[in-house]
Amino acid sequence: MSTCESCGCNITLSVGEKGDTGATGATGATGSAGATGATGETGLGTLGIIDGTTATVALLEADTGSTLYFERATGVVVTLPDSPAEGTNYTFEVLTDVTSNAYTINTGGFGLDVIEGYLYGKKAATADELFLATTDAQISMNGTTSGGTKGTSFTLVHDGVSTWNVSGSFQGSGSLVTPLS
What we know:
- By secondary structure, the chain is mainly beta.
- It has a domain of 100 residues.
- It is built from no helices and 13 strands.
- A seven-stranded mixed β-sheet has the order 3-5-7-12-13-9-10, with no helix packed on it.
- It is globular.
- It starts with a strand and ends in a 10-residue tail after the last strand.
């Protein structure tokens, strides 16, 4: 015997037979899959790292957001894509001092773009120097006075029209000169 919770009267409960289970409803139709997107260009980067151990590197717009590590002591020539979309960007870092030739970055082959902005020149035990880029088409670091040694790090970001905006610093030695031309 049990007591009803709402009124307090005594009630007797008995267990009856189990009833039939109702029928299961039909499963709804599965929706169709969405269209597959277009395949983009294959970039040079792997997990955002671009190989800087070859003599030449042609960057693609698809490589945006990647970092190129300069690791070839005999220099690397990099070509940027012509007039890419706004926000296309690359970071460049020197992991191996260049000892011959140069680490060079050129605007695209058609001469449509320029480099503008600032690079700080750094060398041990001296004040930083500021170098201005206004209508330059190249950054070239020789391993001494124009940079290209460990500690060099800068970024280029395209405005979507005709300008690569540069910011960062280069590490050099001797009487520093601009790597921008």
